[in-house]
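Weekly structure sync - notes
Attendees: PM, LS, DV (DV joined late)
Agenda: review two folding runs queued last week.

Item 1: First target. Sequence and structure tokens pasted below for the record.
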Amino acid sequence: MVVVQTLWHEIISFLGISQIIEVCKTGDYRVLLTFNGILSLISPLIPLLLLIEIGRAIFYKKFKIEDYKMPFFIFVANRFISRFLSIAAVAFCIGLLEKYALIPTTMTWYWFIYGYVIWEFSHFIYHYFGHKIRLFWCLHSTHHAPESMNLSVTYAHFFLEAPYADVIRTSICILMGVNPPMLFLIMFIDGTWGSFIHVGENLIKDGRLGFLNKIILTPSHHRVHHAKNPLYMDTNFCNLLNVWDKVFGTFQNEKRDMNIEYGISREINPNNFWDVYFGELYYLWKDIVKAPGIKNKLLYIIMPPGWSHTGDHKTAKIVKKAFLEQEKAQPVPMTNVSAL
């Protein structure tokens, strides 16, 4: 009986409908007009879309269990390992840093815009480090390991990534004056959109979302971020507002003539939990062990993925540069020449 109750609780928690069920039991629907009530109505959106995505794939006979199996295993593992780590990290940063805030803000629309821009900056910093520092990439790579895109990918994270991300994001936001209530609201909005942009092609074929593609980061942009195509590597680090990607030159639109290849650049078994979850840590350890001297061992930890003490670097920057040079060196087709 305990097992059944625990399983039921986990299902309700995953679907995000516990508060809605409580409202139905009490019959007090006025609570749905409050801020918390509105959040309770929005929370089930991503799980519902995930179920629709899976159902649609089954209906059209395009469902592949391997596309969803690994994110599901990772989600279950993380539920046992890291349930309270992120909450503790956020609370710790707020308690430690709030008194040092540079600017006092209030819950007004103009401070909300300020807060969201600062949040996106903090998200950019965490996400950029996750791709440019080998140790942090080991935490982030689990999210990039799936070789197809669907809403279950949003649940595929190494258990230490969320606390590390929240320490960076919360610290920057609190120091820049984003007050905690506003920060929690931004986190909720950004988390909901951040989940939605993982929607698969079998639910939304063209992830550009029309005119929105020119205003915000869409599923199309995030599909580019998850690609291992040389042109797409290390791009689109923001989550909703693409301002910082454009400022720092990491913004990249999806090209219509380039098929996206999902996954990470090293050879991986996407159906092996241990390889997906711990593989990058294992290969980092191997590189540290074989590296000569303390300096090289430390450099493997802090340099970008693909850096080598031998000088034979295969970082994303070098791979992309080689790809662009090769593209530039290719002869122009005669049809295009005549058109010029």
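Item 2: Second target, run right after the first with the same settings.
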Amino acid sequence: MADTTAGASPRKRIGFLSFGHFQAAAGSHTRTAADALLQTIELAVAAEELGVDGAYVRVHHFARQLSSPFPLLAAIGARTSRIEIGTGVIDMRYENPLYMAESAAAADLIAGGRLQLGISRGSPEQVIEGYRYFGYQPAEGQSDADMARQHTDVLLRAVEGARFAEPNPRPMFPNPPGPLGIEPQSPGLRDRLWWGSGTRATARWTAEQGMNLMSSTLLTEDTGVPFDELQAEQIEVFRQAWREAGWQREPRVSVSRSVIPLTTDLDRAYFGGREDERHDQVGILDGVRARFGKSYTGEPDVLAEELAQDAAVQAADTVLLTVPNQLGVDYNLHLLESIAAHVAPAIGWSPAPEGR
């Protein structure tokens, strides 16, 4: 749950979200996969010192981006002490859910219970039906989305500690009585699973499963209203369904935003003049009409006012800020410092308390 003080609104959390791009191109600070991985760790360490609440990574296969999150998250967890570590999101079509449950628990234990595990059906792929190369394909009459939810069901039960495996009568090591489950287990991880939802219908399903809601800058539906209002409606559908399901804990909700305050000549050289990105866009994605949220680029005071009026930002407890990771650690730390100093206070954020 978000931090609160008497008579005050809940404290908003902010985190950075990196795609982990790497490419040997002019101007890139992440020319190799090693650069992208090691710089993500360094940025997380620096962000924690700044008081930022979360370090999150996107996961994409068959692309020069981050693809195997758990070694990276474990490394961040070992180098930090407070900041949340997370994914946004892991494509469950590609996952062996039992092996994933083991890896997630190990990373969470190394981090002392700070893993926020974002999962989903996934985004459009780099290759056609890439999950088939990983050894998975939908059963007859099943869609790839069905398969992702089936994998998710197995993951949830494994993380909850389900014991289902028949023990060997002559094991290498003594077994406790009864069926066995995956090890290790990390207490509390089940409550820190999130589903990346792109519609109001999947937001309702997310609540019914008892997962937190993660919503990005893309919704795979369009009703004609501004993006932030449609996303706020999605959040309300989720919270109403959560109440109806009778879950006893308070859920968390995150939204993603691209926020670039222009405070230096370098900022303006990189990102100035992008007026076409400051408006919602509507298009067709995988045959479905989708709405893309705008980017927030401009003078800090203007961005602060705009974000304070963003309905979904106000409705969420966590805002994930996408970072241009190929520009390097120093520039991205400057970006986070600018947001922390000039923009984030307007949406209810303050630096994380020491030791939290």
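Discussion on item 2: The chain has one domain: 13-166+178-347.
Action: LS to circulate a short write-up before next sync.
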